[in-house]
Amino acid sequence: MRRMIAAVAAASLLLVPVLLGQKLQTKTASPATLARGKYLVEQIGMCGDCHTPHNEKGEPIKEQWLQGATLPFKPIVPMPVWADKSSSIAGLPGWEKDAAIKFMMTGIAFNGLPARPPMPQYRYNQPDAEAIVAYLKSVAPGK
């Protein structure tokens, strides 16, 4: 009888996180996923071009990698929703993982609106979007 009570108690403790809608363990991205995300961010999406400040020589300031910047260019015709500054994407502050993945797949943000120009509305596939988000979440946010 005691064993049965102990088993029920142990099972109950294991079910608490599930009943609360939480996972028992947080899945961390594999090194291959992070490498894929880094490649997509740096070589395909070219995110650092807008989301990283540049020095007077036009070189990215590595200490401020993906921490947001004032954009050095403007549209040639007026655009009411043009973003003059890029946001910090190091660590993806303010973004839940699933919303960020959806954004990378659809170009639609968590508020239901598309990205403001000049941000492209990317259409990455699910594995690539997940890799990008994993990589961006792994980058240390600015101070």
Description:
There is one protein chain. By secondary structure, the chain is mainly alpha-helical. 41% of the residues lie in helices and 3% in strands. The protein contains five helices and two strands. It has helices at residues 2-19, 31-44, 48-51, 97-106, 126-138, and strands at 69-70, 85-86. It has a two-stranded antiparallel ribbon with strand order 1-2. Helix 2 (31-44) crosses helix 5. It is globular and about 45 Å long.
Strand line-up across the major sheet: 1-2
Q: List the uncertain runs.
A: 2-26
How would you characterize the largest beta sheet?
Answer: 2 strands, antiparallel
Strand content: under 5%
Number of helices: 5
**Percent in helix:** 40-55%
Compute the number of strand runs: 2
List descriptors.
mainly alpha, 5 helices, 143 residues, two-stranded antiparallel sheet, disordered N terminus
Compact overview of the structure:
This protein is mostly helical and 143 residues long. It is built from five helices and two strands, in the order αααββαα. The longest helix is centred in the first third of the chain and has 18 residues, at 2-19.
